[in-house]
Amino acid sequence: MKFAIVLMAFGLSLVACGGSSSSSDKGGNPYSSGENSASGNASYDPHRGEGPWNADNVKVGSTLDVALAEQGHKIQEVKCASCHKLTEEKLVGPGWKGVTSRHKPEWIMNFISNPDPMITKDPAMQAQLELCLVRMPNQNLSGDEPRQILEFMRQNDGVK
Ligand code: HEC
Known about the structure:
Layout: H1 2-14, H2 66-80, H3 99-102, H4 105-113, H5 115-121, H6 123-132, H7 145-156
Helix pairs in contact: 2-7, 4-5, 4-7, 5-6
């Protein structure tokens, strides 16, 4: 699929604000300074993030849970669409296209449940903050909402 190849080739530059492990980071690639604990991040796991979710308690199927994704879509329209597009294009925050390959499910659920500590501790989020200039506010998600949004993000990234 040509489209997909183009996306892969240009994805990182398009999501300037949402860059993942972008190597074009002029202020020093945060991923190359893993041993730098100057900011007291020694115990922070950039793959899991910080919060209640981990690889054991987040179960993700190989196919889409349609009902879950529909719920997630509804929340997205109300709470997230003002800042995030579903494409790779930046609005206030990074576009969501590809977010499920940039981050692990547990990272996404931890981040959207409580972005604040991760924006402070995650090297990738710090780099993003410099580009976005806005901290993502806590959206007060509760119950199953983080999981529903994750499923909708998977749908948006092509899981069927
Ligand atoms: C007021 C604007 C705003 C709203 C509303 C908002 N976000 Fe964000 N979001 C941001 C910004 C800005 C970032 C970039 C990280 C940072 O610097 O805070 C971000 C980052 C993210 C990321 C990380 C993306 C990546 O590629 O690394 C995810 C996931 C995310 N938001 C999910 C959500 C969800 C889910 C909602 C709705 C429940 C939401 N956001 C609502 C502004 C917003």
